[in-house]
Specification:
Blueprint lengths: L2 H5 L2 H25 L2 H34 L12 H9 L3 H13 L4 H8 L5 H16 L4 H12 L4 H15 L1 H13 L2 E6 L5 E6 L2 H15 L10 H19 L12 E6 H5 L7 E3 L3 E3 L1 H8 L4 E6 L5 E3 L9 H11 L14 E5 L14 E5 L3 H5 L3 E4 L5 E4 L9 H5 L3
Parallel strand pairs: 3-6
Antiparallel strand pairs: 1-2, 3-4, 4-5, 6-7, 8-9, 10-11
Bound molecules: zinc ion.
Zinc ion (ZN) binds next to strand 9.
């Protein structure tokens, strides 16, 4: 076989892709090792442009495969699979990535200007997808598709794909306003919140909020959390998780949630008196639907508001059921806020609305619900009490905190750092 014939066989083309790629990879490795930053930047610009061009060629090939297999009876050439399923299973890419590839390949022939810019590497596959999506929206609503393509392509050369998409939505609104309204309606329809009990305890959450819903939640969380204090060691994700629970806790605390089945929404914990008192050998407490929690977790919950204690005797018969226990009335909260002006922990400046009511004599030990025996502690310092720190109100009304006896133990104060 002579070299011209060889060029048009599968083997010849595979070898061409391999040898070309090897040369590119070698040159990039050399450049990374040898070139100064300025020259390396220039080389990266060139390399990224050609990567775009390769993506365009790949997209074209995907389009050819799609066309050649789509109308074959029973999809015999792809073992009965749609093009994107076929690509996903043979190339080990996700179904959604394969679907995006096929969609892009189908759109390109309808967008000659975009296809041209993509083929020479001026724009990336993400840019091309964004343009295709926006043009499709304009077309769907009977707007001027050619004008949309031209203007989007102009913008694509100077924006990143997400920025381009936002600009594109503006264009859709300008050309066909009702289409953007319909898109918003579709986004709202996608809304969902998954809240699933995890096998090992706790809950997995996930879902999707439309732009307005998501911004509302974000604003509430940001407002609640405020700027991150320097000494706050929680991760961003942990702070957001705490914020979400705090929003729910406040909603429950406010007493403004509607009554269902004769009672306001609340959490229920079942426990024996032994568990509550932390006596050795006591059984676990049971949260809501029967998840076992420790006596320590129980006492932590018991310090908070709006609990329904169901105390059982040793046989498991309820001693007291459903008498709602409230840690503080709104009047008492106001009095506490007025007196303590926020978290009483020395050096802490978190305001009353970020603080919880702490019983100086634990509720489990019959501590009275009385302002004189309570103080405000923020959600960061309150848990320290259940880790053994004590808070004492001195006669001059100032507050003293003492670490647990083992605080200065093996690992030393310096390693823990002050809370
Ligand atoms: Zn505090």
């Amino acid at each position: 076989m002579d070299s011209v014939e060889e060029e048009f066989t599968q083997g010849g083309m595979t070898r061409a892709v391999e040898s070309g790629s090897c040369r590119v990879i070698g040159a990039l490795k050399d450049a990374a090792a040898l070139l100064p930053p300025e020259e390396l930047t220039e080389l990266l610009k060139t390399a990224f442009r050609y990567r775009n061009a390769i993506d365009a060629a790949l997209s074209h090939a995907v389009g050819s495969l799609d066309c050649a297999t789509r109308n074959v009876p029973d999809r015999k050439l792809t073992q009965g699979l749609d093009a994107h399923e076929w690509l996903s299973s043979t190339l080990q890419i996700t179904l959604s990535a394969a679907y995006a590839q096929v969609q892009l390949a189908r759109e390109m022939p309808k967008l000659p200007g975009v296809a041209c810019a993509f083929a020479v590497g001026e724009i990336s596959s993400q840019h091309a997808s964004v343009v295709a999506r926006c043009v499709k929206a304009v077309e769907r609503a009977g707007g001027p598709r050619k004008e949309a393509e031209t203007r989007l392509l102009e913008e694509a050369r100077g924006r990143d794909p997400r920025d381009l998409f936002k600009w594109g939505l503006g264009l859709v609104h300008e050309l066909v306003p009702h289409e953007l309204e319909d898109e918003e309606e579709r986004q709202r329809d996608r809304r969902c919140l998954r809240l699933e009990e995890a096998f090992r305890g706790g809950y997995e959450i996930g879902g999707y909020l439309d732009p307005v819903g998501g911004a509302t939640l974000k604003a509430a969380l940001n407002g609640l959390l405020g700027p991150r204090p320097k000494d706050d060691l929680r991760s961003h994700a942990q702070r957001r998780a705490d914020g979400l629970v705090e929003l729910a806790r406040r909603a429950l605390d406010s007493g403004e949630l509607p009554v269902r089945g004769g009672v306001r929404p609340h959490i229920t914990v079942t426990a024996t008196l032994d568990t509550l008192l932390g006596n050795p050998g006591a059984p676990t407490a049971l949260l809501d639907w029967g998840w076992p929690i420790s006596g320590k977790a129980l006492r932590h919950i018991a310090q908070d508001a709006e609990i329904t204690p169901i105390l059982l005797n040793e046989k498991g018969d309820p001693l007291r059921v459903g008498r709602k226990y409230r840690t503080a009335t709104p009047k008492m909260r106001a009095a506490l806020a007025e007196r303590d002006r926020g978290c009483v922990w020395p050096g802490c400046d978190r305001p009353p609305e970020w603080s919880q009511k702490h019983h100086e004599i634990p509720w489990a030990e019959n501590g009275p619900t009385d302002v004189d025996y309570m103080s405000l502690l923020c959600s960061r310092h309150h848990p320290l009490v259940s880790r053994g720190w004590t808070v004492e109100r001195r006669t001059d009304r100032k507050v003293e905190v003492c670490p647990p006896p083992d605080w200065f133990g093996a690992s030393g104060f310096a390693n823990h750092g002050p809370p």
